[in-house]
Amino acid sequence: MSINQLVYVSQATRKMSPEDLSAIQETAKKNNAPLDVTGSLFYNGGWFLQVLEGPLSTLDKLYKKIELDPRHKNSRVLYNEPASFRTFPRWNMNMTNLNDRQADKYDELVEVIEAAQTNRNIGSASPAVTLLKIFRG
């Protein structure tokens, strides 16, 4: 089965507490497992950056549903391309709260979110491509 990777950025409509983020993660895990969707959600300073991996038609439907979520606004797809492998194969949904500053790869991830917010590249790569490269090793 072929898979796509979809990366989007959005702005939270209110400050998210650790409990809010945990609830989002738990719901995503439960919903994504039967859909064969994996990925990771990053939160920093009121912004979300999410990677979703799975069948293209499934990701299209899922993203339309995500866009309707009132917890965020100004959602924008940064990347939606076929992939030869999953970057996050072990996680139906991982969550990284960069507000706690304890996250692995903290500085790199903050730079990716800031670049995505302002529509700028990191070197010659888009924020989405940079994010995927960080986790591909």
TrEMBL record:
Q: Report the SMART domains cross-referenced here.
A: BLUF (SM01034)
Its domain of life? Answer: Bacteria
Indicate what this protein is called per its UniProt record: BLUF domain-containing protein
User: Which Pfam family is one of those matched by this entry?
Assistant: BLUF
Q: What are the residue boundaries of the BLUF domain, all occurrences included? A: 3-94
Which GO molecular function, any one, fits this protein according to its record?
A: FAD binding
